[in-house]
Amino acid sequence: MDLQHPQYAKDRQLLSELLSRAAEQPIADWVLAEIARLRIRYLGFPGARDMQQDLDKTLERWQMSEAELFARTRLIHQRLDLYRESFSNRDDWA
């Protein structure tokens, strides 16, 4: 039985925006960071299969492994504080 993630609606909307920007070159830092964040959130989650499939397809399109995505985003987070500079101050721990 698949479960509904409490952040699904908001995440689905965000992922749709990210997918529209995923073809841009070079890939924007915030796009990489958000894809990685969503990847972690839905990793092993028993539901939201469409989100997981879209995340998989995005990595395939970029010809990037999950390990490469996480390595790149670690470097981004060392260099920038994306979430303080670019996103709302509201915590999103779910």
What does this protein look like?
With 94 residues, the chain is an all-alpha fold. It contains five helices and no strands. It has helices at 8-21, 29-42, 49-62, 66-79, 82-86. The two termini are 20 Å apart.
Topology overview:
Layout: H1 8-21, H2 29-42, H3 49-62, H4 66-79, H5 82-86
Shape: globular
Topology as H/E string? HHHHH
Give the number of helices.
Answer: 5
Major β-sheet profile? none
Q: What is the beta-strand fraction? A: under 5%
Task: Give the overall pLDDT as a whole number.
Answer: 88
Taking pLDDT < 50 over at least 5 consecutive residues as the criterion, the unreliable ranges are none
Q: For the CA atoms, what is the radius of gyration?
A: 13 Å
Coarse structural class: mainly alpha
Distance between the termini: 20 Å
Number-wise, the strands total: 0
DSSP helix fraction: 55-70%
Short description, anyone?
The protein is an all-alpha fold. The chain is built from 5 helices and no strands.
Key terms:
mainly alpha; 94 residues
